[in-house]
Batch of 2 targets.
Target 1
Amino acid sequence: DIVMTQSPDSLAVSLGERATINCKSSQSLLYNSNNKNHLAWYQQKSGQPPKLLIYWASTRESGVPDRFSGSGSGTDFTLSISSLQAEDVAVYYCQQYYSIPPVFGQGTRLEIK
Amino acid sequence: EVQLLESGGGLVQPGGSLRLSCAASGFTFTSYAMNWVRQAPGKGLEWVSTISSGGGSTSYADSVRGRFSVSRDNSRNTLFLQMSSLRAEDTAVYYCAKDLLPFVRTSSFGSWGQGTLVAVSS
């Protein structure tokens, strides 16, 4: 199975500042046939189900604010929030869908400093 | 608007069985693979199972294979998860999740239900 490792486990950022979460996979998520990275990011607020933010590593889901962006390729990926808002407090998960079983990272808890 | 409504959770003794349902609306159910993902209390997300749009192909996490069975009724836009030989470690919120894209299984999760809690305890 592919192993997904996020860093850091928790993060405190001031309002309006940039937040960066990293995700590393144990093998490349770049699928040669479609030249896409099979990597998604989810946001889970307290007491709510997860919500898809980013797929194909960098494609923002419809309705997701443009302060959220995804980058990276191969085995190293980043979720960035350009200007942190209070409503962004949540746990963020990366997930590989390159192979079965799909695997999530352990999560990164984002708080306001 | 996509809606996924899980039901059937509850308290069950170890070794017992439970059947979860997920009623889907707001999209063409027959075009999408569907998934179950669970989350133990205070823990992260764990994929459980996927079923193809037509129901002919299924896959399971090693932790549940042989004990859980996923199925769907496309005439009723409903997804099911039959769980048997339940263990304490199966205690979790179980989410129904729609695959991201139609006609192809991606095992990425575009929409999620609110979840149903399964508690396995004596």
Note: The interface with chain B takes residues 38, 40, 42, 44, 49-52, 55, 61, 93, 95, 97, 100-107 of chain A (CB under 8 Å).
Target 2
Amino acid sequence: SSELTQDPAVSVALGQTVRITCQGDSVRTYYASWYQQKPGQAPVVVIFAKNNRPSGIPDRFIGSTSGSTAYLTITGAQAEDEADYYCNSRDSSGNYAVFGGGTKLTVL
Amino acid sequence: QVQLQESGPGLVKPSQTLSLTCTVSGGSISSGLYYWSWIRQPAGKGLQYLGRIYTSGSTHYDPSLKSRVTISMDTSMNQFSLSLSSVTAADTAMYYCARGSTSSWFGSWGQGTLVTVSP
């Protein structure tokens, strides 16, 4: 079982704001990162090390952390944001990477 | 920009060893700035970190697979490899190689290669 817990599915109306959560004790200590995966494609990092965006990722993607929960907020969700989202951090010992179970985002 | 490409057999028989290679272009695996990792994803399921290798050759594996996984590298070929022994149907998955940072996030991924374990 994953040390990072995500809601299986979330939906958002087009143009609205949605927050995807990732809960785990290790998030208190280690940065969380977020990946977007569309069907048939490899994951793409959208947020790394808490709230850094790779070049090319829109600024509507925002990462944050509070306590043992990391958040990926998408402000003004677009149709192309419909995808699976995975969080990633380290395990509680800090020795290796772990992933959350993923959240399927539907844009209505 | 670095690119990664997985290669290897798409079909492996139960109890045999799965072997995959990741060829890196656009950057050297000897640069010392990154970890080189393997991650898999069963169909319809989430991502599972398998392990990583650093430039020095040091490795780390997911504890649940530690006894079956080996990751190695060939700096002359700019490649790193995954070996997973005693496979079962549960090892059927898309296998990705990825470049990881010291903060355990993965900035570059291969396109993935599907490995099916079947008689």
Note: Chain B touches chain A at residues 37, 39, 46-49, 51-52, 60-63, 96, 100-101, 103-107, 109-112 (CB under 8 Å).
